[in-house]
Design brief:
Blueprint (H helix, E strand, L loop, with lengths): L1 H25 L10 H31 L6 H19 L7 H32 L1
């Protein structure tokens, strides 16, 4: 049973990584010469969470790499992760062609709805390395 539990974390990272990249490639919002702009707006409902999940995965992996460096403390890692989440928020605003208020609201909603993935990843990471 412990062997199966120790395999969940790497499997979770790999599957999440590939699914989020697949969704980002397939559902990238293209508003230029688009016959169905409403469909493009609807694809944002899947694209933005996939984008934030991908960002959270990169932030998590970067935090793990920086955590292994002994000269960097946890407060600095948290500051770097917060800054990278803010950068992904700013980047996400460029994917939409709505008013600025709508873009900000949608990005905040999708950051919040994607954050459970980051929390689950952290929990699996702690369980994985507490068993090794």
């Amino acid at each position: 049973m412990k062997k199966i539990q120790s395999m969940i974390y790497p499997f979770w990272i790999i599957i999440s990584f590939f699914i989020s990249i697949f969704l980002m490639i397939k559902l990238y919002p293209n508003y230029i010469n688009n016959e169905f702009p409403l469909f493009t707006d609807l694809t944002l409902l899947l694209f933005l969470p996939a984008f934030f999940i991908f960002s959270y995965l990169l932030i998590h992996l970067l935090g793990n790499i920086l955590g292994s460096v002994e000269t960097i403390n946890n407060k600095l890692i948290l500051l770097i992760q917060t800054f990278l989440i803010f950068i992904s928020f700013i980047i996400s605003l460029n994917f939409m062609e709505f008013s600025l208020a709508s873009r900000i609201m949608l990005s905040i909603v999708f950051i919040i709805t994607s954050s459970p993935h980051f929390i689950i990843t952290k929990i699996l990471y702690r369980k994985h390395y507490s068993q090794i």
